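Per-record layout

source: Finegoldia magna
name: Bifunctional folate synthesis protein
length: 272
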Amino acid sequence: MDYLLVKDLEIYANHGVFQSEKELGQKFLVTLRMGYNMKKGATSNNLEDSIHYGILSKEVYDYFRSESIDLIETVAYKLVEFIFEKYKIVQEISVEIKKPWAPINLPLDTVKVTINRKKRRYFLGIGSNIGNKQEYVDSAIDTLKSIKSIELKRVSEMYITKAWGKTDQDDFLNCALEIESYEEPEDLLKITQKIEQDLGRERHEKWGPRTIDIDILFCDGEIIYTDDLKIPHPYVQDRKFVLEPLNDFAEFFIHPVFHKTLKQLLEELESK
């Protein structure tokens, strides 16, 4: 990855919790580290193929001063969102904000926060087996598309499949999505759970009927194991209704645990 660094951009603004900070303002130092492929700009020698860091600095300066915010963590995250939205070629961003005049009545050099985000490729599985299944699936996809931190890349065909795990229920309508997002996996999980809740998902029994189910299947090639989130999804290799839609657009994606392509996993499952 190639990186552009804008270091210690000095901005006088009115951020802070105390009323005096909002009224009088103070100095902040902003550092941006942006990762993107510079090959096109480097070989064309054309500024339009790169990021004009003079314009970028002025945009950040104006945006930083546009409102008064209590927490510099909030300011930093809003800058992350602003840069990802404005500069689509950026794949990684680090925003550091220093607050050298922080009113804590103790000797210090500075107080600072740093927020790092990067775009990741996620594969999601979506299913419904209650009510108007197509409407629930479409609503879930439309909601994901409407979130500015998420870019929908690809959607599989729709598949009607038998219930898995608990079979005495209606058939499911299933599909898979590829999205790109700078949301952290844990934050994306909260987003998907909120969509499920808004669409009437109720959790009464394991593998029971549901209006909508949104699973995070893969996050790039990462392996994540926490109490709340397990990636890759632990049942991917056992579920044809997951593997079949994924093979519509990602047949050669390699499962980071089994080190096999999704095409191989589907073929093995079908041969059992």
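summary: Helices lie at 19-24, 39-44, 53-64, 72-86, 133-146, 185-198, 240-246, 262-271. The mean pLDDT is 94.
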